[in-house]
Amino acid sequence: ADWGAAERDIALVLQQYSLYPRYTVRQNLEFPLKPKIRRLPDAEIKDRVARAARTLRIEHLLDRKTDRLSGGEMQRVSIGRAIVRKPRVFLMDEPLSALDAKLREA
After folding, report:
1. CA distance linking residue 49 with residue 28, whole number of Å
2. Confidence of residue 4 (pLDDT cuts 50, 70, 90)
3. Residue 105: in which H helix or E strand, if any?
4. Which of 32, 37, 63, 72 has the most beta carbons within 10 angstroms of its beta carbon?
5. Cβ distance 72 to 98 under 8 Å?
6. Mean pLDDT taken over the chain
7. What is the predicted pLDDT for the residue at 100?
8. Backbone angles phi, psi at 73, to 5 degrees
9. Handedness of CA 17, 20, 23, 27 (dihedral sign)
10. What's the gap between Cα 44 and its chain centre?
């Protein structure tokens, strides 16, 4: 089996946040795109991060460390880490529970 291909097709988002507390929001969003195996150009990484941040309404938080975020903000960053990978399937363990209804719908 080609495990690399399978890994790109499925993104897992847990209710517990899987963030690096010493990284900024931007660094957390970039992290899944940085492995050499992906070989994404910097411009593509920047575009994916910007698009995810806009979608999740966290653009204003990109330079903030994740240990300075609220629960809902951390959850959005966690979801963003999955979104930037552009998976075919998202597996989610109630990651939207910390978000308000309007944002959940978006």
Report:
1. 10
2. very low
3. helix 101-105
4. 32
5. yes
6. 82
7. 66
8. -65, -40
9. negative
10. 15
